[in-house]
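pasting for ref. prot 1 ->
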Amino acid sequence: MNTNSWKNWKRIVLKVGSALIAPSGNGCSAHQLFPIAQFIIECRKQGKEVVLVSSGSVAAGRHLFDSPERPSLAIKKAMAAAGQAEMVGTWDRLFDFPTSQILLTHGDLRDQERYQSIRDTLETSLEAGILPIVNENDTVTTDLLKVGDNDNLSAMVAAAADADALIMCSDINGLYNKNPKLHEDAELLSVVDEINDGIKAMAGGAISSTGTGGMLTKLQAAEKATAHGITTYIVNGFEAETFSRLVRGDNPGTMFTPYKNPMQDDLHWLTHTTRAQGEIIVDQSGAGQVLDEEQNLSSDHLVEVKGNFNIGDTVLVKTKDGTRLAKAVANYSSCLMSFISDQQSPNDHSFPTIESLIEEDNIAVLKEA
C-alpha cells in the first residue's frame, strides 16, 4: 500500500468478527477492542468516515441462556436479540461520539428500494458524525433471507456506502499460500491483484470457533469489494500494531487491489448483492443476445424456466448445457414465462413473440461466461 492510498481514503468500512468481540463465546470483552476503537477515533480525527460491521450478537448473548452445546435455531435467535444490545453497548462505551445500530437481512439488500434506503441511512448518519454499527439481523432472518456471514455483508455494505477501503479483521495476518497453523513454511501474500481459482484454492474453512466466516468468505467479500473499486485488506485484528501500521500507510496484511475499471453501481448490485430466485434457459441465439448486452431477450429464444419468481426478481440466465451467462431482472413471473415456453415450439410460431423477457439495461454478464 502506498502512502497516497491512506491519505486519499475518505470512507472506510471496518469488519470485526465474533472472535474479537466475544473471544470466549460468553459475553463481550472490550480487551481486544481498544486498539480497534483507537483506530476508528484516529480515522475520524483525520477526516475519514468509518462504518463498523460488527459480528458477535450470538456469542455475546450465549451466556444468558442455559442451553446445550448446540442450541436450537430459536435459542440462537434469542441469543442474538439479547447479545445485540450488549455488543452495541460495548462498542458505544469506547467512543465519545454517537453510534447507531443498523440491522440488515439479505432481503433488505437485494430489494432495490430497500437497498437505496440503506444507502440513504448510511450517508445521512455519516454526514451527522455518527458511527454506524452494522450487523446481520440474526433475530429475524431465515435461510432464505440471510447473508450468512459478516465478511460478505461487509462487502455489500462497503458497496452501498461507496467506501474507498474495506478492512476485514481476522485472527491471522492475512492470506497465506497454505494454512499457517498447519504449515510452518506458509508464506503471507502481501498483495493480490486478481482473485482467481489459484488464490481461492489457498483458502481453508473457518478457523475460529465463535465465527461463521473463514478465509474463503473473506475472499468472496474481497471479490465483491474490489469489483466496486474498493481497496480491500485482510489483517490481524488481534495485533495492536496492525492498526498503527495502517495509519502510517503500511500494509500489515494482505491487500487486494481494486478493479481499474469498477463495475457500475447497478450492475455491481445485480451481480454481487442480489440472489437469483430462478433460472431462464435460452438457446444459442438467445445466449448471443444476452452476452451482447445491447439487446432485450425475446421469448423466441426461451427454452425452459426453473424455479418460482415474480416480476422484478433476479434470475440466472443459462444455456441448455448449464453455462451461466448472466444475472438479470425478470420482466415477467416464472408462471407466465413457463406458459410462454409451453406455447412455443420450433415448428409453431403462431404464439406472439414477447420482445423483452429481460431488458438490456437489467442484464449483468457474469465474468466466467
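and prot 2 ->
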Amino acid sequence: MQIALVAHDAKKEDLVNFSIAYQALFASHDLYATGTTGLRIMEATKLKIHRYQSGPLGGDQQIGALIAENRLDLLIFLRDPLMAQPHEPDITALLRLCDVHNVPVATNMASAELLLRGIWRGDLDWRHSESSDE
C-alpha cells in the first residue's frame, strides 16, 4: 500500500511516536510525507519515506496529486483543530480529494489506529486489488 503521513506542527510528535509504534507495519509499505514530518519520522525510525515540500509550501498539493492519480491508498493527516492554518484551503482540497477518490483518511489518533489495525488484518486490501484491476 501507498501511505501518506502528514501532521500539523502541534501533532508532529504524536505522529512520530505513532510511527515508532507501527514501524514494523509501515516498513512493508511505500511511505510519503510532507517535508518536516517525513524528516522527523525518518530520524526517529529506520523507515524510508519519500518526502515532499512542507504543507504550506505545496506539500499538501503534492500529496493531493498522488490521490488524484490513484497512487495513494491511505492518508494519515493529524490535524490541529485548535489552531487556524494559513493554508486551510489546501488542507480542505486534500481532504476533498480523499472523498472524491474514496481514499481512507485519518485526521486524529483514534481513526489512525483503526485504519492501521485494519491494514494489519488485511481489511483494506480492496484498495490494492481495485487499483490492479485497471
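The two ends are 16 Å apart (CA to CA).
Helices lie at 12-21, 23-26, 35-44, 59-68, 88-100, 109-121, 125-132.
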